[in-house]
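Two proteins were folded this term; both appear here.
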Amino acid sequence: MNLNLDIFKIKSNNVVPKKGRILIAEPFLPGSYFNRSIVYIVEHNANGTVGFILNKPVDFQVKDFQNEFPTYEDKIYIGGPVSIESLYYIHSFGRNIEGSIHIQDNLYWGGNFEQIKSMINDQIPLLNQIRFFLGYSGWDKEQLKEELNEDSWLVADIAPELVLSHDKELWSEMVKEQGGKYKLWQNFPENPSMN
């Protein structure tokens, strides 16, 4: 019996990586960081790519990593394997946070950390307006291209509101949204040998 493994061949339909798009991990991409991950691209240029994993929360709060940080109850996420000891954030406060870098629509990353702390101290509601990450995902200039050629990632667009939504089923939902054969990816077990 011949198996049709074309289901794992990724056809990007000319959707290329760029700032504001996502990388959807193929179902069996190994490694604890990228297994069934959604990586939001915040920078993509001739020197490389930077992004943050949107669907890997950890059981810590920001104050566990920043002693002087005010009480803030929201989740923190693993952004990727690079600089895992550093804190990063994506937000929708725009230029109100000095030094923020525009990604797309009303989404920005980074900026003045003291201003973020002041907003929390002033009890400004931040739910679905900011996400904190430990570390980031990074690729050198040819590295991501090689991984795309190896069918490791599907490049897709994402609605900006989903980036800050804390949706724990984001991988399955984004795979389903791609339609066609990609919908079937969600039916595969994470570890085929456990099936």
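Next, the second protein.
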Amino acid sequence: MFSLFRGSEWWVYKTPPLLTIAYLEIITQYLPFEQSLETLFAILVSIFSIGAYGYLINDICDIEVDRKAGKLNRMASLSKKQRLFLVLSCALTGLIPWLIIGLTLPLTIALFALYLLLIIYPAPPLRLKERYLWGVFADAATAHTIPTFFIATAFYNLNETSRSGGSSLGLIATVWASVVGIRGILVHQLWDRNNDLKSGVKTFATKFKVASIRFWINYALFPLETFLVVVIIFFTFQFSIHLFIVIAVYCGVTLVRIDANKLDPSPPKKSEVALYDFYEVWLPLSLLTLLSWQRPEFLIVQALHMILFYSVIKNRLGNALRLFLL
């Protein structure tokens, strides 16, 4: 089932940055353990279910396109009833936790927008994924912007006496996630450009020159994204200066790896992308370590995080360790 939902393509890469926002809110707002654990569980269930729902719809709508491009499509071998059952099951599973916990109006609107965008992004007649810039914005919104806003709002609402700065953190995190999402979809469109040209799929990367897209990514999106993540990090420095050590170590490793592997904010071919390892491993793990140090009851959350994302943690930290051993 995990393979059917293409979980290996997104779960360990897109989920940790979203959970990072949850950990930031718990630290900065000093949220109660029981409520935080309950909300984290609901978020994990929703991320997996809604993510699977989105990829299922996308694959169903791309059956013919993938056939022309010679790409594997897991939905092609299933009957229409089986496809419908899977889509409805994932959609319902993504909602159930919030029907139990309760939804505020902003959260309800965010969920509705997310479910709707995940349909009109791949499905005709709108099929936003082939409408150039609209496709870029829609992908970033479904994978990053709306989920980040939802998580930040859900945790901010847990504490009736929220500390100052909580709403600002949520706003900055949402803007940062939007920029990360736009850069991410543009990079993936660059990687898929040849297949898209072959199958006749219209994307932003097939319409414009590769050099122009990479210029805007490298000299506009990436600097803005870096600035915003630095601002987010400074929000946590007031709670523990020890995070500075983690950031300094990461920067040192990154400088070594840039010299060795030529890390690029927009690599034209599939390879490592600058800062992705920071979002996927270094930042969430450092925040969890801080949280567990201050409040030992959260060790259970850290253990669960390391189990769920063991593969990406092992790969990223293993690569960094090997550089220092060479």
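The two ends are 40 Å apart (CA to CA). The mean pLDDT is 86. These notes refer to the second protein only.
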